[in-house]
Design brief:
Largest sheet: 6 strands, mixed
Distance between the termini: 48 Å
CATH topology of one domain: Rossmann fold
Number of strands: 10
CATH architecture of one domain: 3-Layer(aba) Sandwich
Radius of gyration: 27 Å
Strand order of the largest sheet: 7-6-5-8-9-10
Oligomer: single chain
Number of helices: 11
Order of helices and strands: HHHEEHEHEEHEEHHEHEHEH
Length: about 375
């Protein structure tokens, strides 16, 4: 099979430039995971394989002709060295805020990069794991890892290693023509990455997802809770093949629900947090013996609770901490409402006061969409015993 040069056309960019561009896009995504994780287009993507995320334009370096027709542009003394700033265009009146007259130059451009959601998930989950995962009587969770560990001459085009292909093409051209350059790609230049999947069996684990669906949970608060659980569920199913997930919704009463109900149920009624904790403990007692299972309950609420229920909520939370590997509580504030103005009677402040010496309790506060990613890292950051 002969591969013609036009088959590798990249519309104004060479292969090397495109790979560099992709790396810069990936780095831009990594630096902005906080805002991307809570991006509505991703949370509402219904499992689509690719989503669009806003990325600042990444132009390639290039020379520009002087459009002001000034004299002696481009002349220098020949003493410049790497790193010297030659000049900046329009240093005055750029219209970038502050004092001065309004400018007439355009602002920075943003474009939507289409990113495979699995690639995005890999960046988000690269430093996450189930915390305090311990040896249990039964081992049933095969944790799957994929490693690209070999290069071959044949394979599917989606696994083409472009960098190695370019190197092989340049070396062949150097041998055949005496000129080391890229071009005239042939089948013999192609190199493909292959992989192997390794499985490590780990201890049983179950995650209990508890969510407040009372009338005080506004659209913003529901969105934040579901954003966290969207990524939590995806993380567990990406990294662990058979982790069980139990979904519990509560207002004044708690009930176990399906995953679909959990992510779509509307709000109503008052709040009795202890009902959710009691149901979680009942489910653990009936189905998940602590000597056989690693158990992780996570609860998200807005912190409002029926005042006479707080003592029961603390008592049952303490029982969950003693029973489980980790108990995580996330409290969601009103959008734009500063944390320091939160009432002292909110549940997180009560937990922080009465459970403050509990190593395996983690409480987080979320006031903005960008706080979802730090919450994931706090709950699932690497710590404790690794199996």
């Amino acid at each position: 099979m002969n591969v013609q040069r036009q088959d590798w056309s990249l519309q104004r960019k060479g292969i090397i430039d495109q790979e560099r561009h992709k790396e810069r896009v990936k780095e831009a995504i990594r630096k902005n995971l906080g805002s991307i994780v809570s991006n509505e287009s991703i949370i509402m993507s219904d499992g689509k394989r690719a989503v669009k995320v806003p990325i600042r334009s990444l132009d390639e370096f290039k020379f520009r002709f002087d459009h002001h027709k000034r004299k002696h542009v481009g002349q220098g003394n020949g003493k410049t060295k790497v790193g010297d700033v030659i000049g900046r265009e329009n240093q005055q009146g750029q219209g970038q805020g502050g004092s001065g007259e309004a400018g007439n130059t355009g602002g920075g451009e943003l474009y939507e990069a289409e990113v495979n959601i699995d690639e995005l998930a890999a960046l988000i989950f690269e430093d996450l794991e189930l915390p305090f995962l311990e040896e249990r009587a039964k081992k049933a969770i095969p944790s799957r890892t994929t490693r690209f560990n070999e290069i071959r001459r044949t394979g599917i085009m989606s696994n083409l290693d472009k960098r190695r292909m370019i190197l092989e093409n340049i070396k062949r051209n150097a041998r055949e023509t005496g000129e080391a350059k890229f071009g005239n790609v042939k089948k013999e230049d192609l190199r493909f990455k292959t992989w192997e999947e390794t499985f490590e069996f780990q201890s049983n684990a179950v995650v209990l997802a508890l969510m407040d669906v009372s009338g005080s949970m506004s659209e913003f608060k529901k969105y934040i809770a579901r954003s966290f659980y969207f990524w939590m569920v995806r993380f567990l199913r990406t990294k662990y093949d058979n982790v069980e997930i139990v979904f519990i919704s509560h207002h004044t009463e708690a009930r176990e629900v399906t995953e679909e109900q959990f992510f779509t149920q509307g709000e109503s009624g008052g709040t009795v947090v202890s009902s959710a904790y009691q149901l979680a403990l009942d489910i653990i007692k009936k189905r998940y013996k602590p000597s056989d299972w690693n158990i992780y309950p996570f609860h998200f609420s807005d912190g409002d609770n029926y005042y006479s229920d707080n003592d029961d909520a603390v008592r049952l939370a303490d029982e969950l901490i003693e029973t489980c590997n980790l108990f995580g509580y996330g409290e969601i504030g009103d959008e734009g409402f500063p944390s320091y103005r939160r009432p002292a009677g909110a549940l997180l402040s009560i937990f922080n006061e009465r459970l403050k010496n509990k190593e395996r309790f983690i409480g987080v506060r979320i006031d903005e969409k960008e706080d979802v990613y730090p919450a994931l890292k706090q709950f699932f950051g690497k710590r404790g015993v690794e199996v």
